[in-house]
Amino acid sequence: MNMWTHAIDDALLKIKQNILKHPGKLPHITDGERYEWGDNNDWIEGFYVGMMWLAYEYGQEAFYKESAESYLANFQDRLDRHVALDHHDIGFLYSLSAVAEWHVTGNQAAREAALQAADKLLARWRPRIGIIQAWGREDDPDNGGRMIIDCLLNLPLLFWAYEQTGDAKYYDIAFRHALQSQKFLVRGDGSSYHTFYFHTENGSALRGGTHQGYQDGSTWTRGQAWGIYGFALAYRYTKHEAFLDTSKLLARYFIEHLPEDDVVYWDFDVPVEELTPRDSSASAIAACGLLELLEYMEESDPERTIFEEVLHRSMRSLVEHYATTDLPDAEGLLKHGSYHVRGERAPDDYMIWGDYFYLEALVRLEKGNKAFWYET
Ligand code: GLY
Q: What parts of the sequence cross the membrane (predicted)?
């Protein structure tokens, strides 16, 4: 059994344990290397259901499919009652749950839920600025006119809605948001801002900043990873070459700034001391970004070998030093993720999106599976 298969088997077992132990519940961001289990009211719940779909696609075991399907009504109810949806992460929530279900089973109710979710995401479009507002209401004094790099991963829901309906507004808004992200969030040296502010009245660009990074102007490693994967996905749907170039630029910066064990600290600019937190989730996301990029790179491209080597080194390091394979009762898959270090929220804990992207990368490495809900 190779290293990836062994890691996947352990992950599938843990997903099953969690499902049996916490029926109908969803994991929340929690301090203390554990998950608290609760309702569908944050930005992260899609990852857990997405892991069930990955598990099903990997081994075709009906248990995972039935478990994932059992959450659809819950996600529909959240849409109907607009529970904690005043943010852009609707794409994360509904691509990995409803769109995934529609891809695997063709369930029309899942398709309808995903289309409703896409419409809610569209309502966050600010035409004067050309962005999807990340957080809060339009008149929110701190967040009005603010975009963040993470939003790139919400765009696939809009591209999918365009393919389903033929309505160009989904495509145009996703495309224009990606262009603004490229222009304002990516810096010339390949580093990135986490967030960028615009004037809400006249749409002019104001300044870059951070929310979860070390300081304004630093490079938050998870933001950089969202950028690598997000621009590669934007290229998948649009075939706009400049998005591919931007994804590669961000990947080079990420690779050039890796520490010796190939798993990043939480910010590329934070002074590294003995107890500086890592963010294993950023490395898992970047691994998926590299896998996506490799899909589009010629065999003869010399950079392909570099990306492939780094992908394998980082994944090996995650499996050998960060995975919970030696902790059979652990509920998380990856140790040493960080949510918001400066804000002192879960600085060194399990992150459900870290678990999700780690499993996605493993499954893609092992079976060559694409992330199937992104397929057209
Ligand atoms: N998208 C929120 C985060 O990465 O923490």
A: none
Q: What order do you get walking across the sheet with 195-198 strand by strand?
A: 146-148, 195-198, 205-209
- Catalytic hit among 9, 39, 86, 89: 89
Cα–Cα nearest to 15, from 47, 51, 40, 45: 51
Give the Cα separation of 168 and 125 in Å (integer): 14
| Closest approach atom of ligand 1 to CA 340 | 5
The candidate with the shortest Cα–Cα distance to 360, out of 2, 21, 52, is 52
Q: What is the pLDDT of residue 370?
A: 76
Q: Whose CA is nearest to atom 5 of ligand 1?
A: 339
Q: Does residue 222 line the site of ligand 1, with CB under 6 A?
A: yes
Tokens of 187: 């810096």
Separation between Cα atoms, residue 223 and residue 190, nearest integer Å: 12
Name the residue ranges covered by the structural domains of the chain: 3-370
Ligand 1 centroid to residue 176 C-alpha, Å: 21
| Residue partners of 201: CB distance under 8 A and separation at least 6 | 128
Q: What is the domain class of 3-370 according to CATH?
A: mainly alpha
Burial class (CB in 10 A: 0-12, 13-18, 19+), 164: middle
Token pair of 84 as six digits: 């904690």
Which two structure tokens, joined as six digits, stand for 343?
Answer: 């804000």
Indicate if ligand 1 lies below 6 Å from the C-beta of 177: no
From the CB of 88, is ligand 1 less than 6 Å away? no
The pTM of the full predicted model, rounded to 2 decimals, is: 0.98
User: Given the CA of residue 226, which atom of ligand 1 is nearest to it?
Assistant: 4
In the predicted model, residues of the chain with pLDDT beneath 50 are: none
Q: Judge whether 116 and 79 are in contact, CB under 8 Å.
A: yes
44 Cα–ligand 1 center, Å: 9
Give the pLDDT score at 372.
74
